[in-house]
Amino acid sequence: MTKRTKKVGVTGKYGTRDSTRQTSRIDLLTAGQVPEITETNIVAASYGASLRKQVKKMEITQHAKYTCTFCGKVTVKRQATGIWDCKSCKRTVAGGAYTVATPAAAAMRSTLRRLREIAEV
Predict the structure, then answer these.
(1) Which residues make beta-bridge pairs with 83?
(2) What are the residues whose beta carbons fall under 8 Å from the beta carbon of 96, sequence distance 6 or more?
(3) pTM above 0.85, yes or no
(4) pLDDT one-digit tens code per residue, 52-69
(5) Which CATH entry fits the domain spanning 63-121: 3.40.50.2300, 2.20.25.30, 3.40.50.2000, 1.10.10.10?
(6) CA atoms within 13 A of residue 14's CA, in its CB half-sphere
(7) What local confidence, expressed as pLDDT, does residue 55 receive?
(8) C-alpha span between 56 and 114 (Å, rounded)
């Protein structure tokens, strides 16, 4: 068995790590070089592109405005997880975590409507 070598940081073709050249976030803030934080760069690069796309989709859907089923205006916004408020008619609706109507709820509504129509005929 061979003896393990001590790891000294980034070496080889990438060069050596120079601790004197590291700049702090405060230095970057004063220079105006800190990148803007958006939905996609909240998730680190190590998680991959597919997870970044999923997070972006969730962020867009949860911050969007939706149509109110009571008054018909596009004023429904997310208050908390699963709680949606209409700013116009002041109604509160329970829905999904990221959208007002989940696919399961939409399927249930259509099934109930179909069964109600069958019962009337």
Answers:
(1) 80, 94
(2) 82, 102, 105
(3) no
(4) 888 889 989 999 999 999
(5) 2.20.25.30
(6) 6
(7) 87
(8) 35
pLDDT at 49: 84
Greatest pairwise CA separation for the chain in angstroms: 84
10 Å Cβ neighbour count for 56?
15
The identity of residue 24, as a single letter, is: S
Could you identify the residue written with the tokens 């070089």? 33
Nearest to 89 by CA among 65, 73, 101: 73
What is the tens place of the pLDDT at every residue in 20-40?
Answer: 555 566 666 666 666 666 656
Tokens encoding 31: 């220079």
